[in-house]
Amino acid sequence: METQVKHEPVTFGRHPSTYKHWKLAFEGEIARLTMAVDEDAGLRPGYKLKLNSYDLGVDIELADAVQRLRFEHPEVRCVVVTSIQERIFCAGANIFMLGSSGHGFKVNFCKFTNETRISIEDASSGSGQKYLAALNGTCAGGGYELALACDAMVLVDDGNSAVSLPEVPLLGVLPGTGGLTRLVDKRKVRRDLADVFCTLAEGIKGKRAVEWNLVDEVAPRSRFAEVVDRRAKALAAASPARAAKGVALTPIASRREGDAIVWTHVRLDLDRERRVATLTLQGPPADLPADAAAIRALGASWWPMQAFRELDEALLHLRHNEDEIGLVLLRTQGSAEAVLALDATLDALRGDWFVNEVRLLIARVLRRVDLTAKSFFAMIEPGSCFAGTLFELALAADRSYMLDDEERPTAIHLSPLNGGTYPMTHGPSRLEVRFLGEPGRAAALLERPRGYDPGEASEAGLVTIVADAIDWEDEVRVATEERSSLSPDALTGMEASLRFAGTENGDSKIFGRLTAWQNWIFQRPNAVGERGALTLYGKPERPTFDFRRT
Amino acid sequence: MQLFEKIPNNVNLSQDKKLLRALEKWQPNYLKWWSDAGPADYQVDEIYLRTAISVDAKGWAHFDYVKMPDYKWGIFLTPPEHDRRIGFGDFFGNPAWQEVPGEFRNQLRRIIVTQGDTEPASVEQQRLLCDSAPSQYDCRNLFQVNVEEGRHLWAMVYLLHAYFGRDGREEADELLERRSGYTDKPRILSTFNEPIEDWLSFYMFTMFTDRDGKYQLLALAESGFDPLARTTRFMLTEEAHHMFVGETGVGRVIQRACELMKSDKNEDARAQGGIGLDLIQKYVNFWYSSSLDLFGGEISSNAAEYFAAGLKGREHEEKFEDHVALNATYHVPVYEDGRVTDREVPLRNAMNEVLRDAYIDDNQRGVDRWNKIIADQGVNFTVKLPHRRFNRAMGIYRGHHFDPEGNPISKETWERRKYDWLPTESDKTYVKSLMLPVLERGKMAHWIAKPERGIKGQPIDFEYIRRV
What we know:
The complex is a heterodimer.
Chain A: E1 22-27, E2 30-35, H1 56-72, E3 78-83, E4 88-90, H2 95-100, H3 103-127, E5 130-135, E6 138-140, H4 142-148, E7 152-156, E8 162-164, H5 167-171, H6 179-186, H7 191-198, E9 204-205, H8 206-211, E10 217-219, H9 221-237, E11 255-257, E12 260-262, E13 266-271, E14 276-282, H10 292-298, H11 303-321, E15 327-333, H12 336-348, H13 353-370, E16 375-380, H14 388-396, E17 399-404, E18 412-413, H15 430-434, H16 441-447, E19 451-452, H17 454-460, E20 465-468, H18 469-485, H19 488-499, H20 506-523, H21 525-528, H22 533-536
Parallel strand pairs in A: 2-3, 3-5, 4-6, 5-7, 6-8, 7-10, 14-15, 15-16, 16-17, 17-20
Antiparallel strand pairs in A: 1-2, 8-9, 11-12, 12-13, 13-14, 18-19
Chain B: H1 17-37, E1 46-51, E2 62-67, H2 105-125, H3 136-163, H4 165-177, H5 199-220, H6 226-262, H7 277-293, H8 301-308, E3 329-336, E4 339-346, H9 351-376, H10 411-421, H11 425-433, E5 465-466
Antiparallel strand pairs in B: 1-2, 1-5, 3-4
């Protein structure tokens, strides 16, 4: 059994003025994001963040920077990621931190870092902010995986600096943030060469790193800055210009109310005894503006932006600080018409950079729901507004329950935005995935998007269970209790397998395949047993492996 | 002994055509490196050098005139021991490896490349010294050290070629591509990128930094990988001379300082054109502390892994009782919250510290001999090794400040006082101003005493360098 140590809850709000580990600087259309990890400022005590190694705290700041660059600095077309240390870019995730963390923390750490890496790629494809990794020194493990998430990499060629994925030979685990997948899927490194590379603890440097496509270019120390500069300018030039002025990401505020956490539009009620949380989203007001200038004036307080940032924070809180909560009931409250009006605005103004950013943000938060290892039930009740964008929450849920009561009518609504504005991690829309067995069905439903009463919703296959007023309470109670009684591990595996039906892509391989393998390996004696490689890392003994393969 | 082959060796190189071809391909690049990066002058002159012509007691020290580029660089391993066993670590008692164990291939290669990288580095660092030699005798000693470092590079390159396949050959090529102090391809360890611009620094380097080399070689001479052990054992036979050059070199500067002090009414050696004892002490402080860094971190997981795997042991492993060292601990004084406290560290993690302790004792013996010179001259001064915590840039004391006695001091005190302890720019400029070449047979520069005796029974005014 893991020892249960009570830690301070993890918080996610950050601002560049308080970064401990990164420096953000701007030069016109090029931004410089410099890793300057403070060894002594680990998120939790017990380890030092030597050699620019990172823990969750470092990555939370990185995630903040990536998000901030998109919203606050639309003028930036290329972000150069580099390190302040002379001979080290980054040594990856801090191994002593991993060694001293419980299983759940490790998994959530990997998941969050993965989401951050993918958000970098999302910034490149969705916002036209290209990322260039300027590897000014050795780049190992998670450090190289961060570089792999960038659009291009330049490595200093000083006869010593190498890129490497040493997890297998050194730690008995896997590169946990997409390194394996990105090698073969994104960079198309030949799989036999990738095999050699991933078992070579010291990595590959210089010309061969370029030949194998592990990096895009190498440059001697004396020309490194110049080459990075040239590449950054080229990347910036290839990306379309956007607005000159951004929208400030104001802090997200919440308060405690007993066992509830309350934001402006989101409320999280925790029932720890039953291990159930209720996540309630207050829908948009009816009088939201429909023109770009007015929306820009609202900035971060524009409802869709603020509500989804709050929802994001609630999800992260659930993951990192409420590990025993297994089931989340998703509720919405408000006017479906207001949501549909907002969807019309989001659709009409999609060419506006800010509106586009908000759409991308909503898509990311919805993917965070898909990727959260908790059961989600959507509760479609009177006064709820599961319409269009918010109906995605019901589609993301593992099940949806809809009350059928003539005196208190309920409805769900589709809007054009259910047709692919918010793709899942593996590419398709949630509606497409829902009707994988009926090709064309999603498209047909979206030809004339409309509202559905419980009978129609059930008929159309848009909800799971419809219960009438007599059965409703019992139905919900039994379902909740039953869900909470099942093995959480089995549920995690089951949900992850059922949620992402259809063809895979790179991102989904990282979460669906790599993360699952990584989690399995994190539990195995060869990694974390008494004589496991991760347990003994840095200690005087060498690991002992059980050499039987499954 | 295939001494007259193009590549002298005692490893039956002519029988291994593939290896021979690989090394023959490397050799011209090596010679080019020597001409580009070796001693800046004297390449066509005849130098009275010691050359290894075999590995037995008589053969490893053959003295004769030789042009440096014709020096017999080659491959010499001490003869194999019958049924040698691994002497430490998890494989204690198993037969020593004659081939590289796959599991440790990369670690071994890294160890050999890192060791190999220091050998040409020091030649590069010392490249310009021949232009300011204080005597023929000293200049010859410099060249002796240089050619032997060159051969030690050969020793490591042989291992890379013979046991590490294509990777090994590439690493061997890169050993010739890196250059000391070169921004684009510097030497791996930072000490080996420091310039050596005066002879006092050269003597300090051979006393302190080469002695680190000796202890690294002693640790590798215990390796369970037999070819590495045999190679480094033979290298050690030559290393003693380097330390001799350093210890006697500093000793002679000290002796001269004492003589000049006595001839000055204020006992000021500098006023008489010498190097004062206080300045010598500053050089000791700098080079000794910098060399302590080369042993690596006090608490090191690499050291533990190398020991556990049987790759790198302790010096003279046979003198220890417990060769597995799995349950033992070692005291390491750590600096935390403003004070020094003892910490019990698993012995395997403290192997760098074990080696450093032996190194410190060894240095102290040399310093004692220097102090005897001073005492014999009737001068009241004692040269001291600064505390191991003083002026460290590596390991657990890095980033903190200590005085030469090892007491913690504040950053402000350090900034105010560091030049009481370390050479200033003007100290270095002064020492450099003394570096005028003296190459007339038997003559010495003013700031250094004559050695006690010449090389291999020759007189001091022997023609050690025959200019063409």
